[in-house]
Automatic annotation (TrEMBL):
It comes from Dendrobium thyrsiflorum. Signal peptide: none annotated. Residues 75-304 form the Kinesin motor domain. Residues 28-39 have a biased composition (Polar residues). PROSITE patterns: KINESIN_MOTOR_2. ATP binds at G187, P188, T189, G190, S191, G192, K193, T194. It holds the Pfam family Kinesin. Belongs to the TRAFAC class myosin-kinesin ATPase superfamily. Kinesin family. This is Kinesin motor domain-containing protein.
């Protein structure tokens, strides 16, 4: 934070390795509750996302030892993509893509600055500050919070290719060498999960870009056995507080009702990008007819 006067109380959190700074002795969880109590909106589980259980990975039989199987923490990466707001830049003060819109370093913040303080400020490629509304700060109902330790923070002006290159391309490269990966997009409704994962014909997202890379490399025969075949399944998980998770198989011929487990999902063989994109488009269409009243949702890509 660059604000000097009055100095807001901040809570600092880290994504692994993560330890709250001494100054942040206030429990971050309790500090974020009051504002949600005011709005009545279910709080997005950012704490849980940023404080994952340590993952254990076990090589499968016949699996080559791989660099990513060595260190547990290296296997888990947490990226943050900040969605641009739709209002004209001159009118919106909710997100600052960088220092340009935050008060300058070493500068005393004026009252006007504080009123226009963006709610989310990118501090660096791995850190953001979530600024509480001024009224909540003054009444001490909420505090500003610094979230450190992201693998990378994508500011609002990031384009689909930026996300793909940093997040997905390494996983596709690993996949082509025979390793499995899981990518999960998480966020409340409207935060850009679908846009990031699927995109649009003009701005394709992670899934179409990954399919193109996979089939391009297959065509180029880069490190790939010509006999290799690919299968695709597509499904949606609905998770609602207090209810059992539901898994919907979104493949064309699959039953529309929910599945009990992902092990019973259908898989279809795909032999071209066009094949795969047709199936994905069908899945997206089918998704929109499935019930969607969950506040916190996710989109998954599994490469195996
Ligand atoms: N980075 C972005 N750049 C431009 N537009 C975006 C971006 N992210 C999201 N949008 C737009 O915001 C709207 C909501 O995004 P999207 O549908 O991807 O949200 P979602 O998280 O999938 O929501 P839901 O959980 O309700 O399905 C869409 O119109 C989408 O095009």
């Amino acid at each position: 934070m660059d604000l000097q006067s009055p100095r807001p109380v901040s809570t600092v959190r880290r994504n692994p390795p993560r330890k709250a700074k001494q100054a942040a002795s206030v429990d971050a969880r309790s500090s974020s509750k009051p504002s949600n109590a005011v709005t009545g909106i279910t709080r997005f589980p950012l704490d849980e996302i940023l404080e994952p259980e340590p993952l254990q990975t076990y090589p499968l039989p016949n699996q080559k030892p791989h660099k990513s199987n060595v260190g547990v923490s290296n296997n888990l990466k947490v990226f943050l993509r900040i969605r641009p707001l739709e209002c004209p830049v001159s009118q919106c003060s909710n997100v600052a893509g960088g220092e340009a819109r935050a008060p300058g370093r070493g500068r005393v913040a004026k009252e006007g600055d504080r009123k226009n303080m963006p709610c989310l400020v990118v501090n660096s490629s791995s850190s953001v500050t979530l600024n509480a509304p001024l009224s909540s700060l003054e009444s001490k109902r909420a505090k500003n919070e610094v979230y450190n330790g992201f693998s990378h923070v994508f500011p609002p002006e990031s384009i689909q290719e930026d996300i793909y290159d940093k997040v997905m391309q390494p996983l596709v490269m690993d996949f082509m060498e025979g390793h499995s990966s899981l990518l999960v997009a998480m966020g409340p409704t409207g935060s850009g999960k679908t846009y990031t994962m699927f995109g649009s014909p003009q701005q394709p997202g992670i899934v179409p870009l990954a399919l193109r890379q996979i089939f391009r490399q297959k065509a180029d025969n880069v490190n790939i056995q010509a006999s290799r075949t690919y299968y695709l399944s597509i499904f949606e998980i609905h998770s609602e507080r207090g209810k059992v998770e539901k898994i919907f198989d979104l493949l064309p011929e699959s039953m529309p009702h929910q599945q009990a487990s992902i092990s019973s999902l259908k898989e279809v063989k795909i032999s071209s990008v066009a094949d795969a994109e047709k199936i994905v488009a069908h899945g997206i269409f089918k998704r929109s007819t499935a019930p969607t009243n969950a506040n916190n949702q996710s989109r998954h890509v599994i490469l195996k």
